[in-house]
Structure formats: C-alpha cells, structure tokens
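Following up on my earlier message about adenosine-5'-diphosphate. Here are the inputs again, as you asked, copied directly from the submission form:
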Amino acid sequence: MSSYRIQGATGEWEVVIGLEVHAQVVSNAKLFSGAATAFGAEPNTQVSLVDAAMPGMLPVPNRECIRQAVRTGLAINAQINRWSRFDRKNYFYADLPQGYQISQLYHPLVGEGSLAIEADEKAGIAQDKQIGIERIHVEQDAGKLMHDQHPTRSYVDLNRSGVALMEIVSRPDMRSPAEAGAYLRKLRAILRYVGSCDGNMEEGSMRADVNVSVRKPGDEFGTRTETKNVNSVRFVMQAIEYEAQRQVDVLESGGRIVQETRLFNPDSGTTRSMRSKEDAHDYRYFPDPDLLPLELDEAFIEDCRASLPELPDAKRRRYQEELGLSAYNAEVLTAEAETARWFEALLTEGARIQKKGEAQVAKASANWLLSELYGALHRLGKTLEDSPVSPERGAELLALVADGTISGSIAKQVFEIMLETGDAPASIVEARGLKQTTDTGAIEAVVAKVLADNADKVEQYKGGKEALFGFFVGQTMKAMQGKANPQIVNELLKKALG
Ligand code: ADP
Ligand code: MG
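Thanks, got it. Here's what our run produced:
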C-alpha cells in the first residue's frame, strides 16, 4: 500500500488534512432578503436595505436556500437536524455593515455525513475511502472590498453581502494532497448534480479553507494551520504540499507550529502567515434575536429527498452493472452532471431509433462520445454544452453504423461533415453517396482486381506472411472509397486467397 509521507531527518511524517468548503447556494435571492444574486452585476445594484444593514431591518429566511442546504445534506447521507438555529458571529470589517455575520455555530442545519473517494493508483490513492463530513451550516456571505492604488482609495461592493453560503466542514480524514483533490472534485460533482451550487471555483462560488497538520504516524494530531479561501483544486493541493513541508521543516529544526490563519499565493505556490487564529469565543457568538429557530417538518425533508437526482456514485455503479461499461468509462461519464446528461440523451435516442435496449447501444455510444465527440470538441475548443452536434444527431449517426448503412470509417467522415454543416447524418450519406455497399458481386470484382494487381504479395501471403491480409483489406476498401461492408470484404478475401 502506498501512502503519502514526507521524509525528514528524524523519520517519516504523515499529513493530516481537513477542509472547510464555502459553497454559494444556487438561489435567485439572498439568504435573508429578496435582493438578486446574479454574478457579475454592476457594484451595489443588488443590495436591499437588509443587506446594507439599515437600522431596524429584519431578516427573513429564504425557504429556497434552506431547501438547497437540506438537499445537499441528503446527498452526502447526512443527518438533517429538524431543529437548528442562527447565531451572530461578531466582527468588524469594512465589507460587513452589520458588524456580525449570521451563521450557525451551535446547532447547524446538517449534521454528520460522509463522502466516498475512489482508489486512484496513478494519483497514489491506494484504496476507496470514506471521508467524514462533520456538518453543513448555512451562513451569509460578506461584501467585497476593492483597493485602488492611484489615488489610494478603497471601495465597497455589497452585491455579495447576504448571499447564502453552505459551509461544508470535513473531518480531518484526508492524508495526502491527492485525497484532498479527490474529495473536492467529488464534492463539486455532487453539488452540481444536486444543483445546490454551481461549483465554479474561478468565480468564487466554491472556495476552501485548508487545514493542515503533520505528525509522526501513530502520534496524536499535531497543531494545524488554516490557509484561507483557496480557489482551485490544484491550488488546494499545492497549498497542502507546501504547508506540510514547511511544518516538517519547522518541527525538525526544533520549532513549534502556531495555530494561525495563512494566505496562499498562487504565483509562488507558497503560504504566508496572515494573522493568529481567533477562537470561537473571540467572536462572541450568540443566538440571533431577530430570527426564530428553524423547525423542519418531515414533509419538507421528504420533499427535498424526492427532488434529488441519481447521484454520481449510484450512476457510476449502474453504468457498470446495467450498461456493461468499463470502470474507466463509467467514471469519466459520471464525473460531471452535464456529461452524464448528454450521454443519457444519446442512449435514450439511440435505443429508440434502433429499437433496442439501452444496454445494447451503451458501449458504442460511450466509445463514440469519449473518443470521436470529445476529440472534436477538444479540437474546436468547445464543451458538451455548446457542442455543434446534438445527442439526437449523434444517435442517428450511430444507428447508421449499427444497421450497416455506413462503415465505421465512413462514419468518421460523416461526423466531420456534421460538425461543419450541422446537417443530419442520413442526408449527408444520401447526398454524398456514402452508403456502404453489400453488393457481393461488386466487391468480388474489386477483390479480384486487387489480388491480380498484387500478385507478388499474394505469393508472399501464401508462403506464410499472413500479416499481408490487412493490406489486401485496405486496398479493397480504398478502391471502394471505404464504402464496402468490411465483413463482406473479409469473407470474400479469405475465400479468394484460399
Ligand atoms: P474553525 O472554525 O476554528 O476553523 P472547525 O472545527 O470549524 O474550526 O474546523 C476545523 C477544520 O479543521 C475541520 O475541517 C477539521 O477537519 C480540521 N482539523 C481539525 N483538527 C485538525 C488537525 N489537527 N489537522 C488538520 N486539520 C484539522
Ligand atoms: Mg474555519
């Protein structure tokens, strides 16, 4: 079993990682006000009196935000707390007009859950593993400060103020940068499947606080540092690697780790100290007197549960067990909700046109999507979302191959033309005369000519050089512009060569 260790002068060190992920809730309105949440709006155009903390304004919980957090909790098999409460976390900052953030410290909406990461030999993850999730609580986001150098001015944009966040807190269960990366990718996939967060790390709708400590294997947990607001999977992995090595260096040179908050610098891949870590009591948390505790009834929770789609793990298993796909293909096709959606549309349509079961068209569909379509999209700099070819058209193309109208190699040509023209595959085949011929007489004549033209090679073949068979197939196909049915070509060649 391979495990991640840092080699020091005094022996091997183990890394312990826990992640706190802030995920912006998908909702048209903010957590406690009706102001809009759309990304990229002009500064201060989406700010209600509540978000600007005008005196006397009262927060009203947004049912949709609560619903999204509960759905997320159910998706990680977590306990949903029927009774939860909002607390005020008091601190001063220029982007926080209230002087406190409404959060949940003592009684979070979602309790204990977990998430599975898969073994990945290449990444050094030796086996499947469950990562514990301690809680998900709901809280408000703050505004944003912008600093100008010339002249020296600061501006505040309150559009983000009051937007609902889920804070998803893992247990310190991860032991390598790769495991943390796998956890984040899986979490992001689940959020996107559920539709409770768009998972867009570049736009900041998902960011991670990275808690890292090191210890000698078997020892108690060491003191951790927390690197704030890291906004890509790669950066999280880099931050862990850097921070773990730094801590080992400090400890081995006789120093000790102080519990502190650090900042990640993406340009250098390093972290630096920002401030010493506050403790909960520094924030003077207390129950928000403007808000009643949240009480959920069973019907609400059941409604949330019923609204959940099939999730990535279940889907992956179904693709392998019921559709007969390889573990690798099942993994790739389910990693993103959009890929699975596209694939399933392709399957449904393929099964309908070919009048077969989905399992019977699954392999060809998966192979075509992952090689032909992905290859083309990559070349064109596009994604499935703006694919020039729809699942319906893709299914039509595959059906033409399946029923023998065109060969696999002609299908590649037809696909290229589909990408350029957007035409239906059947009309391309018709207009360009690409139909595969099963006319045995015509193929036989070409086979005879190919063999006559290559009498020397026929001699060699008969003398035992059987690899030449492929050459004859190729010549015959070429002479027929790829339109001969390959199976018939094979049969006739075998017959002719005795
Ligand atoms: P805080 O709010 O002070 O950051 P929390 O308990 O909410 O504290 O979050 C702590 C986070 O740090 C969790 O993700 C937890 O898994 C992680 N963590 C706790 N102890 C350690 C440790 N010794 N090493 C690494 N991570 C840790
Ligand atoms: Mg924290």
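One observation from looking it over: The pocket of magnesium ion (ligand 2) is lined by residues 20, 209, 226 (CB under 6 Å). Hope that helps, and feel free to reply on this thread.
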